[in-house]
Design brief:
CATH topology of chain A: OB fold (Dihydrolipoamide Acetyltransferase, E2P)
Low-confidence stretches of chain A: none
Strand content of chain B: 5-15%
Number of helices of chain A: 4
CATH architecture of the largest domain in chain B: 3-Layer(aba) Sandwich
Order of helices and strands of chain B: HHHHEHEHEHEHEEHEEEHEHEEHHH
Shape of chain B: globular
Strand order of the largest sheet of chain B: 1-7-6-5-4-2-3
Largest interface: A-B, 10 and 9 residues
Distance between the termini of chain B: 21 Å
Helix content of chain B: 25-40%
Number of domains of chain A: 1
Number of strands of chain B: 12
Strand content of chain A: 25-35%
Structural class of chain B: alpha/beta
Shape of chain A: globular
CATH class of chain A: Mainly Beta
Largest sheet of chain A: 6 strands, antiparallel
Radius of gyration of chain B: 26 Å
Largest sheet of chain B: 7 strands, mixed
Radius of gyration of chain A: 13 Å
Mean pLDDT of chain A: 94
Oligomer: heterodimer
Low-confidence stretches of chain B: none
Number of domains of chain B: 3
Mean pLDDT of chain B: 92
Strand order of the largest sheet of chain A: 1-2-3-9-8-5
Chain lengths: 129, 484
């Protein structure tokens, strides 16, 4: 299971990659594995704003439907529309082509509240026991 | 049975007919049989042209592909797929019930109205609540009505509230019903026992909360031991308690939600009271309430006077109609027949047998399958696939393999609080022999998971179709029929 060092993580299994004043958001390798085959991803419109922990979308797999939560506050500047036709990218490339939304960060400081890869790896290990 | 079956309009041949209709007296063209404005000019192109035998075989073959409680144990947890006694069907087909027009004057329908009044009274007695409305056509519509009543209650007091508390072990429809009423949903987590802690409800409770929506027993099949204290915490801040009664098969005749502090609940007659279930057929989701909520119930209400029973629209605070006429009356007949035949003692026996059967299955499977919550369970039990993970076998594989053993699969991947859930509800109507055969199949499958995991991953092997590609069906659905 892969948890890249340059990402920030949430206990709801989203990741955030900081790029300048933007943050790119997706779900983790652990999340995609637990969900199983992703069949549908519902994403917000560009311009929508979210508070930390607020649901910004929905991911649906054969097993279940789950909310997607914004790791930090921000305004949506881009959405990965490719997922509409190719939701399988969330499974095959969760940290790359399976990205979901790009946020203009409201407050860079909020990123410091997220987990580093090591802490998230420990959290996931606890989930499995 | 193993033959492929084309659609009915892929069958037949041009000009083939099932029955020749006799020409009217006086000849076909200028006969009086059908007025010209009722005749069709087109040639009915595209409609199936088939013989009677082709029609009969087509539908009989389709029916043979069907799984139901009439063909096999149907252990869908949370769904209560119990056997529906045939006598209920016979009674619902009595001409006086089956051919009764819903607009017939009340004085000519006193028998049917007595049945409705009797069912309302029986459900009120079983719930420990004061008034019942039989209109909702399904459990989710009953939930919606229940939450509309909650909202009407708060609005009438000049205190419209905006939030609803729902435990993580509630039925999946509960958040949807609350949201449809305009409420924000706040989830309350179950504890390590799988139960809703009253302290967590009290902590989450404030004057913005309209109601707690609790499923009891919850979707883990566990009785909410702290429901009275939780209800007291809700009431102390002016909230109401809604109970999802979908799992009432574990309480019926033994425990009354009204005694637990519940203010409003729905029944699923098609689950608990042995009326047809599944296949999109008509359901019924009656709602029971405490007296203070009764003024908001849908119209018309049944009222009794010296002249007998009559429908009344005189309810100025009513939330209005939920459905045309009086609900799915034929379903109500079946439920009343079930209640009348069993009586209070018989209904309690049903509940005890349902709990006994589920606990028998649970006791025999424990060990071979992982039991995530060992709190004593009621009418259903929830396992997970954790013990099988080392073999690379999942809950889905177990469910598919069960089909090879001749059983319908239990509910899988629900409730969501259990990863890889396998949720079994055998119901009261199964014999020990059937339960043993089912358990033995699941034990054999657990062995196969270790010795031959590929056998499971590729199952089913003996069903009419091999494993379907559910992922591709969801990602690339073909929604229109395509010629072969």
């Amino acid at each position: 299971m892969d948890f890249p060092e340059d990402l920030h993580y949430t206990q709801e299994h989203e990741w955030l990659r900081v790029e300048g004043n933007d943050g790119v958001v997706g779900i983790t390798d652990f999340a995609q594995d637990a969900l199983g085959d992703v069949v549908f991803v519902e994403l917000p419109p560009v311009g929508a704003t979210f508070a930390p922990g607020q649901a910004f979308g929905v991911v649906e797999s054969n097993k279940t439907v789950s909310d997607l939560f914004a790791p930090v506050a921000g305004r949506v500047t881009a959405v990965n529309h490719v997922l509409r036709d190719e939701p399988e990218l969330v499974n095959s490339d969760p940290y790359g082509a399976g990205w979901m939304i790009r946020l203009a960060l409201t407050d860079r400081e909020q990123v410091n509240r997220l987990l580093y890869a090591d802490a998230y790896r420990t959290f996931v290990a606890q989930q499995r026991t | 049975m193993l033959l492929d079956e084309p659609l009915i309009f892929e069958r037949g041949a041009t000009g083939r007919i099932g029955w020749a209709v006799a020409e009217p007296p006086g000849g076909g063209q200028d006969g009086p049989a059908l007025p010209p404005d009722l005749r069709r000019d087109d040639d009915l192109a595209g409609l199936p042209e088939v013989s009677e035998l082709e029609v009969v075989r087509h539908f009989v073959r389709l029916s043979q592909w069907n799984y139901s409680a009439a063909t096999t144990l149907y252990p869908l947890g949370s769904c209560t797929m119990k056997y529906n006694p045939v006598v209920n069907e016979a009674l619902a087909r009595l001409p006086g019930f089956a051919t009764l027009h819903p607009l017939v004057p009340d004085r000519l329908a006193q028998g049917a109205l007595e049945l409705i009044a009797g069912l309302e009274a029986a459900l009120a007695a079983l719930s420990g609540l004061d008034a019942v409305c039989l209109q909702p056509a399904a459990g989710a519509q009953g939930e919606l009505l229940g939450m509309l009543l909650v909202r009407a209650h708060h609005v009438a007091r000049g205190d419209p509230r905006r939030r609803v508390l729902i435990p993580s072990s509630a039925h999946g429809t509960n958040p949807a019903s609350a949201a449809l009423c305009g409420y924000q949903v706040a989830e309350v987590a179950v504890d390590a026992r799988g139960l809703l802690p009253a302290a967590a409800v009290a902590a989450a409770m404030d004057e913005s909360v309209a109601a707690l929506m609790v499923t009891n027993p919850n979707t883990l099949g566990l009785f909410e031991e702290e429901i009275e204290a939780a209800a007291a915490a809700v009431h102390a801040r002016g909230g109401l308690v809604y109970m999802d009664g979908a799992n009432f098969n574990a309480l019926m005749g033994v425990a009354r939600p009204g005694d637990m502090g519940v203010d409003v609940m729905q029944f699923n007659l098609h689950k608990t009271f042995s009326t047809p279930h599944g296949g999109g057929g008509p359901g019924a989701g009656p709602v029971a309430v405490r007296a203070p909520l009764a003024p908001y119930l849908p119209v018309p209400r049944l009222v009794r006077s010296d002249a007998g029973l009559a429908w009344s629209d005189d309810a100025p605070q009513s939330v209005g109609r939920m459905r045309s006429f009086y609900g799915n009356f034929g379903v109500l007949v079946r439920a009343f027949a079930y209640i009348a035949r069993l009586g209070a003692v018989g209904l309690a026996d049903v509940t005890r047998l349902a709990v006994l059967n589920a606990n028998y299955v649970r006791a025999r499977l424990q060990g071979a399958y992982h039991l995530p919550y060992d709190t004593p369970s009621l009418h259903e039990c929830v396992f997970s696939d954790r013990h099988l993970q080392d073999s690379g076998v999942s809950t889905l594989d177990v469910a598919k393999r069960l089909l090879d053993y001749g059983f319908y699969a239990p509910t899988i991947y629900f409730p969501l609080v259990v990863k890889g859930a396998l949720m079994i509800e055998p119901t009261e109507t199964e014999t020990k022999e059937t339960l043993d055969a089912f358990v033995n199949a699941l034990l054999a499958i657990a062995d196969e998971a270790r010795t031959d995991p590929a056998l499971l991953r590729n199952a089913p092997h003996r069903a009419r179709l091999a494993r379907l590609d559910e992922t591709r069906a969801a990602r690339r659905p073909i929604l229109r029929w395509q010629p072969r």
